[in-house]
Design goal:
The protein is α+β, with helices and mostly antiparallel strands. Among the domains are: about 40 residues; about 90 residues, TolA/TonB C-terminal domain, CATH 3.30.2420. The protein has four helices and seven strands. The strands form three sheets. Strands 3-2-7 form a three-stranded antiparallel sheet, covered by helices on one side. A hairpin with a 5-residue loop joins β2 and β3. The longest helix is centred in the N-terminal third of the chain and has 22 residues. The radius of gyration is 74 Å and the shape is elongated.
């Protein structure tokens, strides 16, 4: 106290010691730390990087964002889409009414006649198919077992002849080329005994000789006509064989 007073008396001011402030102290400490950090980063960058990662990871807070709910949207109907099917119609059972009218059963008609199975003619006698008379024939008016109009005998050659040497021309290879061959022609012998409608039934190697044979049979030969069972002349076929020797 006395010293303070002496100081004041000599200088005219009072010397009081002030207490340092907290903020000033913190500022000084921070400046020292920054200075040390700058020196360490300049001379030991790897160590400072490791320290930074450690400090940052200590203060890192992982924040998980809530999952966003996906809005559910109902599909819009297509303008041309098919509509929902309607209910299936089920028909009601229908029972046909019973007819009050009773129908009569019509009996089958009776057979027109009865008789033996072997009777087919217009008369009830005999087994034939003719329209008149009795017997076993197929004629329509005569008795007997004949067939009527069918030849019972064959035509017979009675006149005319064909000469191998004079009636045929000499073939290109000579007569020996035709020797040993034959031709068969077919004609129809009428009731007058004349032949007609000649055709080659079995040809020879010489078509020209076959043609000449047909012409000679029709023009030159005469026949006795065939006869039926009653002796009547009827037309019938005849086969003429011409051989060359």
């Amino acid at each position: 106290m006395n010293s303070d007073k002496q100081s004041v008396a000599s200088t005219g001011f009072v010397n009081r010691k002030r207490k340092p402030r907290v903020g000033t102290i913190l500022l000084i400490v921070a400046l020292h730390i920054l200075g040390l950090y700058g020196l360490a980063k300049a001379f030991a960058p790897d160590m400072t990087a490791t320290v930074e990662r450690t400090v940052v990871s200590a203060f890192t807070v992982t924040v998980t964002a809530p999952e966003e709910e996906t809005p559910v949207t109902e599909p819009e109907p297509d303008e041309g889409a098919q509509g929902d099917p309607g209910l299936k119609a089920t028909p009601k059972p229908v029972t046909a009414p019973t007819s009050p009218i009773k129908t009569r059963e019509t009996p089958a008609p009776r057979a027109s006649s009865t008789g033996a199975a072997n009777t087919s003619g217009a008369r009830d006698q005999g087994d034939g198919t003719g329209a008149d008379g009795s017997g076993l024939g197929t004629g329509s008016g005569r008795d007997g077992g004949g067939t009527g109009g069918v030849a019972a005998t064959k035509p017979q050659h009675v006149s005319g002849r064909i000469n191998n040497a004079r009636d045929y021309p000499v073939p290109p290879g000579g007569r020996d080329a035709r020797r040993g061959t034959e031709v068969i022609v077919r004609v129809i012998v009428g009731v007058n005994g004349r032949a007609s409608n000649c055709s080659v039934y079995k040809p020879s190697p010489d078509p020209e000789a076959d043609r000449i044979t047909c012409q000679l049979v029709v023009d030159r030969l005469g026949f006795k006509p065939a006869q039926d069972a009653q002796g009547n002349p009827v037309a019938a076929p005849f086969y003429w064989r011409q051989r060359w020797f």
